[in-house]
Amino acid sequence: MPNLLIIEDEAAIRRVLSKILKEEDESYQVDEAADGVEGVKKIKANDYDLVLCDIKMPKMDGVEVLQEIQKLKPEIPVIMISGHGDIETAVDTMKKGAFDYIAKPPDLNRLLNTVRIALDRKELITENKRLKRKVSKNYQMIGESEAMTKVKDMIEKVAPTEARVLITGENGTGKELVAHWLHQKSERAKKPIIEVNCAAIPSELIESELFGHVKGAFTSANKDRAGKFEAANGGTIFLDEIGDMSLSAQAKVLRALQENKIQRVGSDKDIKVDVRVLAATNKNLKQEIADKNFREDLYHRLAVILIEVPALNDRREDIPLLITHFAEKIAKEQGTQVCTFTNKAIKLLQNYNWTGNIRELRNVVERLLILGGKEIDDKTVTQFSGK
Ligand SMILES: Nc1ncnc2c1ncn2[C@@H]1O[C@H](COP(=O)(O)OP(=O)(O)OP(=O)(O)O)[C@@H](O)[C@H]1O
């Protein structure tokens, strides 16, 4: 239900605006303030999705109110209402951050349109914030073992630089998580991180996926299309499972890294790109080089910094923390109660041979939560863990 506030000293205009808005949409909750001071007080006390604010008012004028809102709650869009004499001021308020302005007497269509657009934008901003919070929660990195501390320290050091990083480690150890942290803690964090799973894309499509193509480059290319490198411009590209990339794609990636230029498939026009490259693999690339499956020159370009993510079996001391973390997370996702694990149950899980690493540990915790009840003991673990 959108909450709107009208700040206007002329009672008649306040009433008209309020009526128009309520008639337009029954869900609009419209509140009123008779001057700037009252308006600011209300904004401090309540959550509004939109403020309509007159410019000329006694006590505190609209420009001051706007500045106050931007200090208090900058996410609220403000639409200024201007009289004949203050159109110039109204235009000026837009430079100061007002969403828009409408002239008195208000044109109905224009007013409703502006209100709708402002509310949509506010919703997008809120949604965006929520998603960002969710993403950063999802990418929590648990672990205080020596091995994990080393990884975290390395991330802190390397993330703000432009260095390319090769992340190695077994499946499910958290390589993708490391890549996201490197991006989030870099200057490029405001731009996207684009992930490409090189193993999941057929080799004949990988070049077009990475570099895009022009119409007619191949049978199904019915229009020009940008690739992932262009999409990541200004940000980061994360080439996951790079050990599975075809040799011809490797040659093109090498060129992109050497020259910061790419060409769409089917075109010889160079496109400049500014992309930081992070790559990950669970393969032993040195062995792949020896077997002629991976280019040595590309390896050296990619592995400026190497981060090796330890296997879970090499950092068992993190297992109790991870169990609690996943137990809480899963309970939250499923809306169930958080369950506890007895010391014996934790010991048992600590001593397993984890071949699927953290991903496998999460699955086991989930299975136990579903089947085991409120307290998980060693017997339940033996019964249900499926190990
Ligand atoms: N240190 C950690 N703390 C909490 N969760 C983690 C940690 N490391 C990994 N995870 C979680 O474990 C799962 C697997 O991690 P991720 O996908 O990063 O592994 P990966 O090494 O990239 O796997 P793959 O090689 O299969 O692509 C994800 O759900 C991730 O959020």
Automatic annotation (TrEMBL):
Organism of this sequence: Mesonia hippocampi
Signal sequence annotation: none
Protein name as it appears in the record: DNA-binding NtrC family response regulator
PANTHER family xref list: TRANSCRIPTIONAL REGULATORY PROTEIN (PTHR32071)
Molecular function in Gene Ontology: ATP binding; DNA binding
Domain Response regulatory: 3-119
Entries under CDD domains matching the protein: AAA (cd00009)
Domain Sigma-54 factor interaction: 141-370
ATP-binding keyword on record: yes
Taxonomy, superkingdom: Bacteria
Keyword DNA-binding: yes
Upper classification of the organism: Bacteria, Pseudomonadati, Bacteroidota, Flavobacteriia, Flavobacteriales
